[in-house]
Amino acid sequence: MKFLIAAALLGALPVSSAMCASLEAPKGAVILTITGDIQNTNTANAATFDLAMLQALAGRQAIMDTPWTDGATEFDGPYLQAVLEAAGAHGKTLRIKALNDYSADVPMTDATDYETILALKMNGKPMSVRDKGPLFMIYPFDRNHELYNEKYFSRSVWQIKEIEVVD
Fold first, then answer.
1. Under 8 Å CB-to-CB from 63, ≥6 apart: which residues?
2. Per-residue pLDDT at 8
3. Separation CA 102–CA 137 (nearest Å)
4. Distances (CA, A) of 146 to 59, 65, 105
5. What is the mean pLDDT of each run of 10 residues along the chain (167 residues)?
6. What is the arrangement of strands in the sheet containing 121-122, beginning at the earlier edge strand?
7. Distance (Å, rounded) from C-alpha 112 to C-alpha 139?
8. What is the pTM of this model?
């Protein structure tokens, strides 16, 4: 009986960061760095991802109209939520930063409530910096037309280099 109580109590304890799964180091060029309130790191205080790591995460392809493209455009990439889970992210706000130092504060709920993706490809081709790459945050405008407004357009950062998890 004492063993069962002890086992139940141990199961209720929070998991320390030392007990969390480690994140493998990238083998290729780093495309994305996640900092802030994260548990899984592979460099000093950061989780870094190369192309192969991002492609291995759950994601989706979506065809939609956006204010930044001409006509229906196909986007392909991992779910933002899958990327954040890989980093062990906790917080209420994501500060998404672009190569040109533009940033947008995005509620964490945008990753959990919507099928938001970090697009790596546009129309089947890897996205270059010239074409809004290497990563472009895309909301599911094809599935939720209520998101097609300025509020979400301003959160749709392109040329993403870093996500800082805050709050």
1. 72, 73, 74, 75, 142
2. 39
3. 13
4. 21, 13, 20
5. 39 39 89 97 96 98 95 97 97 97 97 97 96 96 96 97 96
6. 59-64, 73-78, 121-122, 125-126
7. 12
8. 0.85
